[in-house]
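sorry for the late reply, my laptop died twice this morning and i had to redo everyting from scratch. anyway the thing you sent over, i finally got around to it. pasting the sequence first so we're on the same page, its 250 residues, then the predicted structure underneath. double check i copied it right bc i was rushing
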Amino acid sequence: MDQTKRPERSPGPLTLAIDIGGTHLKAGVLDAADAMAAGPTRIDTPHPSPPAVVVEGLAGIVGPLGRFDRISIGFPGVVRDGKVMTAPNLGTEAWHGFPLAAKLAERFGKPARMENDATVQGLGVIEGHGLECVITLGTGMGFALYMNGRPGPHLELSQHPARGKKTYDQYLGNAAFQEVGRPRWNKRVEKAIGYIHTLTSCDVLYIGGGNSKHLKFELPPWVRIVSNEAGITGGIRLWDAKLDDMFAAP
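ok and here's the structure:
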C-alpha cells in the first residue's frame, strides 16, 4: 500500500490558499473539510520583491498543486477591496494600490479573495466566541482582532511605536530576535502581550508565526500558541458565507 497516498478528499470546492510573507511564499490546496489536498509548497520570498516578481514566484509554487476552484490570499500589510495599501516588509512604494487579488484571479482563472495575513491565520485558529486577538511573530509582527468569529477593521499595530521610536515590527520582528538574542527577545514579547491585552481586553490571545517556537516564558492563561500552518489552513474561512459582505463589490 502506498503510505504517501492522501485520504479521499471531502466533496466540495477546493481552495488554493496562498500565504505571502517577508521570508517565504507558501501555497496549498484545501478540501472542504480543511484537509490539505495538495502541498503545501513554498519558496523563499524574493528580495527585492516587486509585484511582478512575487506573482511569478507564486505561479511557480502553485503550478504543481493541480486543480482548485477558488483562491484565498494572506498578504503582510494593509489590504482593502482586493488591493494592497501597504507592504512594509516587501517594499511599500512598489505595492501601493496594486490589485493583487484581481491579478491572481486573472492569472489562475479562478475567483480570489485577499485579506491581511494575520487575519487569515487567525481565521484558521479562533473559536469564534467573544473577543479574540491574534499576533504573528515572523519577519515582523502581524495583528488581527475578531468579535464572535468575524474580523474587525484591520489595525496595523505592527507600525505603531512599541518602545521609544521602535515599532512593534522593529521591536519584535526577526531582525530584533537575531540582534538581541532569545532571552531579551522573550522579555520583549512578554511585555508586548501585556500591552496588547491592556489595549484590547481580549478573551484569548493566539500567537503564531515562525518565531513563536522560540517563546520560553510562562504564558498567561489567556494566551495560546498556534501552528504556523494556520496561515494556509485559514484560507478556506475567507469563503464562509458570513464574510461574503466583506468582499462584495463596492
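The domain at 15-119+230-247 is CATH 3.30.420.40 (Nucleotidyltransferase; domain 5).
thats about all i looked at so far, will dig more tmrw
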